[in-house]
Amino acid sequence: MSARRALTSLALLLLVVGCAGERQPTGMKIPTAVPHAVRWAGGHLPQFSAGNVLPEGNAQDGLHAFLSGGLSLDRNTATFWAVRGQQRSIQINYLSATGGTSAPFLKLTLTDPIFVPGRGNLAVGDSVLITVTIDPNAIEVSLEPTGLQFGNPAEMKISYGGAAGDLNGDGVVNATDAEIEAKLLGMWYREGSNSTWEQIPASQTIADKSFTCALQHFSQYAVSFLEYAVSW
């Protein structure tokens, strides 16, 4: 009797092991740990121009010329001074791959920086130097000082039009890219290169291929989507 029970137990054990060793059903999708960042068309950083938007009533046409108001742009980095209690904005445009047309890439607006890491709280009227660095490979920006905090959130609008429709970077614009744009694309951030990416709330406008989001603090931001691996 005990021998029969032992054989039954062994059979059940082998059945469990066999089931555990079976492959996942064809087509099962398992999310990878790292989102896929949307890349610039042609695999290279385009040329940029920048301007700053002064407080309402002080600007003639809304966008002032490059280098006005203390703004500077060096290759893929732009800097400007933000002042607590004053609205300050920067707008960065990019040239198309042919260099013939210019389109908006990023607009950043802030009025209420309240805390600078390593420096402390800002009083009304105090200023802090803001740096925007554009990634040379992906549609991604780093905003510094990292960890700068806001009372009223800053607003960032970023366009992914520079990918020219090829959102998955396979060299072909097709229905897959349209599905990515409609269902998967979003805004992601991380605190540093050693941190993991996390998705943040953002409002998407497909008509002008952009996301707008409120920022409570500065870090690294990217237009990305979560890739899926297929198990066969």
Short description:
12% of the residues lie in helices and 42% in strands. The chain is mainly beta.
Topology (elements, then pairings):
Layout lengths: L1 H19 L7 E4 L4 E2 L10 E6 L18 E3 L2 E7 L4 E8 L6 E9 L2 E4 L3 E2 L5 E8 L5 E5 L4 E11 L15 H10 L1 E5 L7 E3 L2 E3 L4 E8 L2 E6 L2 E4 L1
Antiparallel strand pairs: 1-18, 2-17, 3-6, 4-5, 5-10, 6-7, 7-12, 8-9, 8-12, 10-11, 11-17, 12-16, 13-14, 13-17, 15-16
Could you walk me through the main structural features you see in this protein, from its secondary elements to its overall organization?
With 232 residues, the chain is mainly beta. The protein has one domain (24-231): Chondroitinase Ac, Chain A, domain 3, CATH 2.60.220. 12% of the residues lie in helices and 42% in strands. The protein contains two helices and 18 strands. The protein has helices at residues 2-20, 175-184, and strands at residues 28-31, 36-37, 48-53, 72-74, 77-83, 88-95, 102-110, 113-116, 120-121, 127-134, 140-144, 149-159, 186-190, 198-200, 203-205, 210-217, 220-225, 228-231. The strands form three sheets. Strands 2, 4, 5, 10, 11, 13, 14 and 17 form an eight-stranded antiparallel beta sheet that branches.
